[in-house]
Amino acid sequence: MATLFTDNVVADLTADVTKRLAWIARQPIPSTKKLEREIASEDRQLKRLAALGKLRDLLQGDVGVAAQVLKALVGDVVIDTRQVEEQEKPQMVAVGSSQ
Predict the structure, then answer these.
(1) Terminus of the chain with fewer CB atoms < 10 Å: N or C?
(2) Which DSSP letter does residue 91 get?
(3) How far apart, in whole angstroms, are the C-alpha atoms of residue 5 and residue 63?
(4) Is 27 helix (H, G, I), strand (E, B) or coil?
(5) Cα separation, 69 vs 42, whole angstroms
(6) What is the value of pTM for the model shown?
(7) Strands (DSSP E) found in the chain
(8) Closest CA to 79 of 60, 62, 96
(9) pLDDT tens digits, residue range 55-77?
(10) CA 37 to each of CA 27, 40, 62, 81, 97: distance values in angstroms, whole numbers, following the listed order
């Protein structure tokens, strides 16, 4: 009966693997900075989207609160009601005071 892995084959294979592992261990660890920056950027974008959703809900809610938020974001704001085409009821419209 033939032996597939003789002691010499196992010893040679073990030596080769040990050399390869030693070489890999000496290699510099790849930087993760670029990936970390990309993840941080994606996280900021997701937070902005969530904030915009909350802002939309806020602006569609209480007019007094919406006016304060808009003023903080864009300066003085005038809230007016206007008849809008194809709408039965007048619509609330926020306009910057510079217009």
Answers:
(1) N
(2) E
(3) 82
(4) coil
(5) 26
(6) 0.39
(7) 77-82, 91-96
(8) 96
(9) 888 878 887 887 787 778 778 86
(10) 23, 5, 38, 45, 39
